[in-house]
């Protein structure tokens, strides 16, 4: 069974074709600058050279047509015909309260996705565009929507309701939704496999630390709390996002800087986080390099970030009652021994101890806690595409 996984952005499209018999990636790639001058597709067949095709790509329908052509091409294809694609799994950012699990896409599902655009105005429209383009090219192939928010629909009411007038939840569905759910779910399942334990017997704190970052408390395989909220802006300080701040800062800035609501929103989403604090970069590699040279603001940004991560982990351990494993994933979590050490060094009060030699690694799956650590600490590279493919296969097989 070959599953095509699609992740559509406003001007880009990522894809993977996965043979589910061995969960083997046959091909992957990226279509970029859709509708913009200089558009191209970067196609990577398994065990072959990467191919770059540059030509005008005016819309997502054309992009998907090029993806399928690349996959079945005699020169650099990996399957003989489009008929070998059993199903398509689509990443969809926001399912609102309508979806607590992945679903086969129907007209009714599409109506719900349209309704939820106001909850994710930057993400859901391109997700919908990708689905519609795919349906036009492969009308008879079943399609599945896998939601970033679905995994967090198990969070109890006291954890998702905000302390504002309840009528705003009733009228506008303002509540914590959480994101990165597909990543947190994959990492939790993989952690149980690595430890040789039943996921239902484990309490895990998963740390998806990248340019966007979130932490989730998982009890018996179920999300009970997560750091991102109504939008991905809440929670940790991130690459360019502020994370939690005093809400009164917003009207204060609007008055002092004569800014509109949209302008403040842009500052908090695009100019804040470790970029705003350091004044250097949103890339943690740059910050680590500058901090090593003695740049105080770069060091401050790293300290702030690690401290926020530590606070959330400690808070979620209190909610869980006990923790069996703390897991680091995503770009920073997988590739920064320094950040992992800064976070874990502050958690020795609960018996966390990492082995510095084991921790000195980038992008590899391994247990990095010392033998006497009361809590297992792991690096688990995330694989959202495989999780999407698994969920798609389960629904269509």
Automatic annotation (TrEMBL):
GO terms for molecular function: acetate kinase activity; ATP binding; magnesium ion binding. Keywords: ATP-binding, Cytoplasm, Kinase, Magnesium, Metal-binding, Nucleotide-binding, Transferase. It is found in: Cytoplasm. Its main location: cytoplasm. The active site is at 148 (proton donor/acceptor). NCBIfam families: ackA. Belongs to the acetokinase family. This is Acetate kinase. It comes from Soehngenia longivitae. The gene is ackA.
